[in-house]
Amino acid sequence: MSRRRPVPWIHRWSRPLIGAVALIGALGTAYLTVVKLTGGSAACPTSGCEQVLSSPYATVFGLPLTLFGFLAYAGMGVMAIAPLALNSDPQKEARSKLEGWTWLLLFAGAVAMVVFSAYLMYLLAFKIQALCLYCLASALLTVTLLVLTVIGRKWRDIGQLFFTAIVIGMIALIATLGVYAQASNPTTATSGSGSTVVEITTDSGPAEIALAQHLKQVGAKMYGAWWCPHCHDQKQLFGKTAAREFTYIECDPRGVNPQPKACQVAKIESYPSWEINGKLYTGTQSLEELAQASGYQGPRNFSNYIPAS
Predict the structure, then answer these.
(1) What are phi and psi of 84, to 5 degrees?
(2) Which residues contact 31 (CB under 8 A, 6 or more apart)?
(3) Phi, psi of 222 (to 5 degrees)
(4) Dihedral through CA 14, CA 19, CA 24, CA 29, nearest 10?
(5) CB count in 10 Å sphere of residue 176
(6) Distance between alpha carbon 195 and the CA centroid of its chain, in Å?
(7) Alpha carbon of 287 to those of 113, 206, 235, 274: distances in Å?
(8) Which of 103, 204, 261, 281 would disulfide-bridge 239, Cβ 3.0–4.6 Å?
(9) What is the rounded average pLDDT of the residues 75-103?
(10) What is the 3-state secondary structure (H, E, C) of the chain?
């Protein structure tokens, strides 16, 4: 009489482990999504996190990329845990079918996420050129999900699994390249130093110009970077004419008339940052907030508003 082989522990615990990893990823991306939508600064030991969140690659179809990451992690978590809810004897057949389908979906999702993360690592290293710990952690989580889906059960045909991974990987890569290729880019211009800067398209009213002149008179400074969309939003609030009136300090050495040392002295950690009367204000500020912080007493019939994220 042959003895039945015990089920390996990884096969018993693979789904809960996948669910736990997906939960960690979902919480991280949810946090970054809130930071992106509110224009805040992520808790990060390096400025690279803010640089990545402010880069053009952090938004897809007008929505934060982290939102799509959250949906991906949440979907992986649901698919991993859903079959475990079917425990009773009448549900065994339904659970078996659900496990089979969800394993294939988990594997496909993990492969797609790894391919997408690999492309983001390429952007991080060669395009954005910044160190983002959240991005590195997310890449590690996606690789962990893929490993767990491969070793978490006994696959009947490894060759077929490998072929499926190639097909899904190619589809994911083409879709990724297509998403960024078709992403709408704002009107840009090239500066004398070769940096690509975004043109300001809004008009300035008398109130915007008066506020900008007042900010310059009281010594207020706006710190930013040429690639930062929130900095562009801030300038859009003032309009083309007024944006040339206040003091702007470029922190990126690759920008126009850069002053990175001034940004270091001011301890700038996120863009944009305003220094007004010795106090720092981070994130895109409404013109009313700038007027209040600087003691502006002029007209406040501002015509521009913070655009939706």
Answers:
(1) -70, -15
(2) 42
(3) -105, 125
(4) 130
(5) 18
(6) 22
(7) 40, 13, 10, 12
(8) 204
(9) 86
(10) CCCCCCCCHHHHHHHHHHHHHHHHHHHHHHHHHHHHHHCCCCCCCCCHHHHHHHCHHHEECCEEHHHHHHHHHHHHHHHHHHHHHCCCHHHHHHHHHHHHHHHHHHHHHHHHHHHHHHHHHHHHHHHHCCCCHHHHHHHHHHHHHHHHHHHCCCCCCHHHHHHHHHHHHHHHHHHHHHHHHHCCCCCEEECCCCCEEECCCCCCCHHHHHHHHHHHHCCCEEEECCCCHHHHHHHHHHHHHHCCCCEEEECCCCCCCECHHHHHHCCCCCCCEEEECCEEEECCCCHHHHHHHHCCCCCCCCCCCCCCC
Query: pLDDT tier at 4 (50, 70, 90 boundaries)?
Result: low
**What's the CA gap between 23 and 17, in Å, rounded?**
10
The CA distance from 148 to 77, in Å, is 13
Full set of structural domains in the chain with CATH: 9-182 (1.20.1440.130), 188-294 (3.40.30.10)
Residue in the structure block whose two tokens are 């859009």: 236
Q: What is the mean pLDDT of residues 163-169?
A: 96
* Cis? peptide before 272, omega within 30° of 0: yes
* All residues at 6 or more sequence positions from 301 whose CB lies less than 8 Å from its CB, including other chains: 205, 207
pTM of the model: 0.66
Distance CA 47, CA 309 (A): 21
pLDDT score of 66 more than 80: yes
pLDDT value, residue 198: 65
